[in-house]
Specification:
The protein is built from nine helices and no strands. By secondary structure, the chain is mainly alpha-helical. It has one domain. Helix 2 packs parallel to helix 5 and helix 4 packs antiparallel against helix 5. The relative contact order is 0.15. It is a multi-pass membrane protein.
Length: 235
């Protein structure tokens, strides 16, 4: 088996260059596969919320904090000159997450001045980061991303447990979130070698697995409207 892998590595090095091997090729394939999958990652969730006109069991605060985390990952990857294959999905997930956040806020009657004020502050922070934060600053932001991603998952988990229902949460999206974060553990080890980023994806994988487990605990059963968290009652 080792001899076969050695022969494959030799072919890869001859074809692509001396720095390449089978594990790097797999990592690149996984990385770009994640990016391709991210183009539609949140679409099932967006369509489910839009068609039902309900945000049952979805947490707006969780989505908002997730957006901040993906923004940090995107800006840090770009400014630190990491391979695009190791962070590119952040851009596409971020755009979809904004659409999802707007839908959740709309159906919970919270799409108001507070949101637009926060959006303006967010845009200003992104501009400042791109123009005034150095590499050390982005490495610090990546460290702050770890507790941020942890905190971002808690409102969603708590909302599901309180409702005893996954509500309008999409199983496909949650499954792909877990698969993507697990794959990112491998690509980070192979291509980035940054323990902070690796820890972030490791914790993300653990928390995404908890959310997926809750699908099997609560299934798709509904909860009476008066007990629902993260939605509004409709007439």
């Amino acid at each position: 088996m080792e001899s076969v892998i050695g022969q494959v590595n030799q072919v890869i090095k001859t074809t692509l260059g001396p720095e390449w091997d089978l594990s790097l090729l797999i990592s690149k394939a996984l990385g770009y596969g994640i990016i391709a999958g991210s183009l539609l990652l949140k679409v099932p969730q967006i369509l489910k919320v839009a068609s039902s006109k309900s945000a049952e069991s979805l947490s707006a605060s969780s989505i908002a904090m997730e957006n901040i985390g993906f923004t940090i990952s995107l800006l840090a990857g770009y400014k630190l000159l990491n391979p695009f294959s190791t962070y590119g999905e952040s851009a596409f997930i971020l755009v979809q997450n904004f659409f999802l956040l707007i839908l959740v806020l709309k159906y919970t009657q919270k799409l108001n001045a507070v949101f637009f004020t926060g959006l303006a502050l967010y845009a200003g922070a992104v501009f400042a980061a791109l123009n005034y934060v150095d590499n050390d600053g982005f490495n610090l932001l990546l460290k702050l991303n770890i507790p941020l991603f942890i905190i971002s998952k808690f409102p969603q988990i708590i909302t599901i447990i309180k409702n005893k229902s996954v509500g309008q949460l999409s199983f496909i999206t949650c499954f792909l979130n877990l698969a993507g974060s697990l794959a990112r553990v491998f690509t980070t080890i192979k291509e980035v070698n940054n323990p902070v980023i690796l820890l972030s994806y490791g914790i993300g994988s653990f928390l995404n697995s908890i959310i997926l487990i809750l699908f099997f605990v609560y299934g798709t059963k509904k909860v009476p409207a008066r007990k629902q968290v993260g939605t509004k009652k409709t007439n």
